[in-house]
Amino acid sequence: MSAVLKPSRIAPGIELSDPAAVADLLDDGAQAFLAELHRRFEPARQACLAERRRRQAGFDAGALPDFREDTRAIRDGNWRVAPVPAALLDRRVEITGPVDPKMVINALNSGANCYMADFEDSTAPTWDNLVAGQRALRAAIAGTLEFTADNGKRYALRPEDERAVLIVRPRGWHLDEKHVLVDAGPDQGGRGQRMSAALFDLGLFAWLNATALAAKDRGPYFYLPKLQSMEEAALWNEVLTHIEHELGLPQGQMKVTVLIETLPAAFEMDEILHALRGRIVGLNCGRWDYIFSYIKTLRAHRDRVLPERSQVTMTQPFLKSYSELLIQTCHRRGAHAMGGMAAQIPIGNDEEANEQALARVRADKLREVTAGHDGTWVAHPALIPLAREVFDERMPGPHQQHLGREEVIVTGRDLLVPSLGTITRIGFENNVEVCVRYLAAWLDGNGCVPIHWLMEDAATAEIARTQLWQWLHAADGGNTPLHLHDGTVIDEALFDRVLLNLPSRLAGQPIPGAGRVQEAIALLEELTHRATLEEFLTLPAYERI
Ligand SMILES: CC(=O)SCCNC(=O)CCNC(=O)[C@H](O)C(C)(C)COP(=O)(O)OP(=O)(O)OC[C@H]1O[C@@H](n2cnc3c(N)ncnc32)[C@H](O)[C@@H]1OP(=O)(O)O
Ligand SMILES: O=CC(=O)O
Ligand SMILES: [Mg+2]
């Protein structure tokens, strides 16, 4: 049951693309609630985004990220976050996935401890996907969600006490929701302002479900993505405090786990925990966005160019330091240190290749539990038993916060240390292929696809996209160009040749979103040739869906 606002609080001002089609979700009360979120928090969101641009200009001019002098007292202080609620104490295996009804049922039934329902990296934010996702989650919480596939297979929820605990991930601060416009006025040419996508996803989910979840003492719980600073965390805290007040929930009822998946945020882990200390239960190593952010933040630092994607594993020193610092920081503050996602997924038609893929996932989970992580992510239900076995064997209790990892000393230099490795022709061509295929699927409404038996989503595709840009533009300003391992110069001509040959390489393969491949090629070509690096692939792509 959704909360009810007093009539006087119902304000006009929201413009929806097709109000009748979503009247079941976005009634007058929901609209007023969302409009109020926009009016209260949009200026602060824009200020945070402006601050991101200001900081980046400094990095582009040669500065490097560092720990903040003005927040030393927070880092040195002796404080802990609020206690973790019972439902989130044991999070050893979390499954993640998009929010279509079949996925929601499969994930909740999967046997994982938690399910992160993802409106972000693995969802292409078409209006239909977002609306279907909100409906599916509301029905799941009510226990009524069912689904029948085109092949007739029927899906229903297991009993509530056998389902994974639901955690919802809204989109990040940088994205707008173009189907929800607020307060049309002359200064916007008669149209309203686009609402923040993050506030829309989280706000609507909370409006629809907070009361029901709080009644079961199940949250709502959220994963917050792509934060870059403690100010962004503080903004989330204000938003959540406001929502709790409006919906009549106890303060701190809504819990969050923050993904540390940007390079600037790695220098503010304590500060982010502190800003959210009344409600934060953990940090998560979002490794794929973190690698993307490392490339993006250090785009102008020629000495820190990364090797090809397949060589950027969690054993690279800068990634090892990041995960160890996260574990140490969380455990010192009473929070869980969640691990992340290995990209390998089961390979159905090749037993040997499947064994190798599973061995890599197992090695990744073993590294995580040994280092002190309190839980991990899997991309696919078939990986749950494997991850559980590794964590069960090494983590007898519900978590391992007692492992302080005090011996770990991570400096700013360690978080930024250059990586060794190469860029092979296969690695270069693979980046081009992944970008095009992922983008084609995304434009077609599918935000997560297997490519060469790896899970690809917005974060992994961003690594491929920003690497191509950085490798090509490394020669800007008169620098010597980078070379492939075989000696070939990396330049625009090489990129153009690979892109031109791609359609014939893809011919005959079943490609999700095949009808959008040419559009994806055109967009990648434009973004890669451009003199400045586009901040997020999904910003220009969103204008095309
Ligand atoms: C960087 C990050 O942000 S990581 C977090 C974001 N990424 C994710 O969440 C990845 C989610 N995973 C997926 O979307 C999928 O596993 C993919 C796209 C990688 C592979 O999907 P598929 O090719 O459909 O896998 P496959 O055919 O083996 O699926 C078998 C069954 O498992 C289900 N399944 C697969 N992944 C999931 C999942 N994550 N959650 C629930 N069910 C799943 C499928 O729906 C299918 O169900 P069915 O037998 O009832 O039809
Ligand atoms: O969201 C997770 C990541 O790795 O990125
Ligand atoms: Mg991410």
UniProtKB/TrEMBL annotation:
Key words, A-Z: Acyltransferase, Glyoxylate bypass, Transferase, Tricarboxylic acid cycle
Check the record and name the InterPro entries matching this protein.
Answer: Malate_synth_C_sf (IPR044856), Malate_synth_sf (IPR011076), Malate_synthA (IPR006252), Malate_synthase_TIM (IPR001465), MS_C (IPR048355), MS_N (IPR048356), MS_N_TIM-barrel_dom (IPR046363)
- Alphabetical GO biological process terms: glyoxylate cycle; tricarboxylic acid cycle
Q: Which GO terms describe its cellular component?
A: cytoplasm
GO MF term set: malate synthase activity
Classification via CDD domains: malate_synt_A
What reaction gets catalysed by this protein? glyoxylate + acetyl-CoA + H2O = (S)-malate + CoA + H(+)
Which Pfam families does the UniProt record give?
Answer: MS_C, MS_N, MS_TIM-barrel
User: Which EC numbers does the record give?
Assistant: 2.3.3.9
Endoplasmic reticulum in keyword set: no
Q: What EC class is this? A: transferase
Q: Which residue positions are annotated as catalytic?
A: 169, 457
Domain named Malate synthase C-terminal: residues: 423-545
Give the matching NCBIfam families: malate_syn_A (TIGR01344)
Q: Which family does it belong to?
A: Belongs to the malate synthase family.
This chain's protein is named: malate synthase
Source organism of this protein record: Luteimonas viscosa
